[in-house]
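Subject: Sanity check before I submit

Could someone independently write out the structure tokens for this chain? I want to compare against mine line by line before I put it in a report. The sequence has 128 residues.
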Amino acid sequence: MQPAAAAVTKATTEDKAPPAVVDTFPRDAASDVSHNSLVSASFSKHMDSSTINADTFTVKNDGTTTNIAGIVHLSPDSKSCIFRADQKFSPDTKYIAIIDKAVKDEASNTLVTTKAWSFRTIRANSGS
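---
Independent answer below. Compare away.
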């Protein structure tokens, strides 16, 4: 009788709730973003590190299909992913950051939809 009760308890506590992106940096539609800014997203749940990578977290120059080269990693608490571009972002340029809905939390639940947001970098200094 004990194993059946344990199975019922496990079935009722199984995590089926999808994760959500709860914050982004830069914020959606931000302007005057630094050329060497990190790009990040925070999640409502602990994420599966094997699903957070350069294929599922991308940054593109608006109007192009080519991903900006960079490194993607998950924070130590597994609730934020961070993109660091290999080179500085171009001045006064709009970028689109995308978290693919294929990313999974630790219970293998995926995002409900792909998360996309945009930001614009600061203009170049007039003296440079």
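---
OP: Matches mine. For the report I'm noting this point. The longest helix spans residues 2-13.
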